[in-house]
Amino acid sequence: MNWARVARSERRAMKAERVRAQLQKLYGPLFFVTSQAEKILEISQRHSDGYRIEYIEGKLGHRKDAETAIEVNNQYVRQLKELANQAAEIMRGAYSYIDPADSEQFQNVVVDTVRLAIERDESGKLITPLEIYRHVGDMYFFRCDFITLVQRRFREMRDELQALES
């Protein structure tokens, strides 16, 4: 009986170590990056909505500061692109810690970062002819389903680790 208890305890310790490593090397750093991206996406969307309401639909029309408003939002987009690149680098460096159930969504983010580097110029403007882009399909600066997945997995793993260590 004692050997069974020891074996169970060892399996539990090995599982806890695996989950801890996944949190430290992959899901924790991704949680940090995706949390920033989530907030910047919200700010960028509010900024775009404000621009549309005030300049396009509203009374302001085309003023000199309209270009400044566009450039500010472009800065948010560039920041999202940088965060997506950081997420891709984290995944490349810790690919063995990716839960197999998550691999497709993780791969989509990495492919998006490659496409963004190839199909857009430094300012973020699409350089692929629109007709061809439509055939290839959309690419994203940051996928919302990826953000949701990472945040959910981080919390699940954190809770699992706490249960394994208690």
- Biggest pleated sheet: none
Question: Which oligomeric form is depicted?
Answer: single chain
Terminal Cα separation, in Å?
A: 22 Å
- Give the overall average pLDDT: 90
Q: Note poorly predicted spans.
A: none
Structural class: mainly alpha
The Cα radius of gyration reads 21 Å
The fraction of residues in strands falls at: under 5%
Q: Based on Cα principal axes, name the global outline.
A: elongated
Give the arrangement of secondary structure elements:
Blueprint: H1 2-56, H2 64-93, H3 103-119, H4 130-136, H5 144-165
Briefly summarize what is shown.
It contains five helices and no strands.
Structural write-up:
By secondary structure, the chain is mostly helical. The protein has one domain. The protein is built from five helices and no strands. Helix 1 runs antiparallel to helix 5 (144-165) and helix 2 packs across helix 3 (103-119). The longest helix is centred in the first third of the chain and has 55 residues, at 2-56. The two termini are 22 Å apart.
Characteristic terms for this protein:
single chain, 166 residues, mainly alpha, 5 helices, 79% helix, elongated
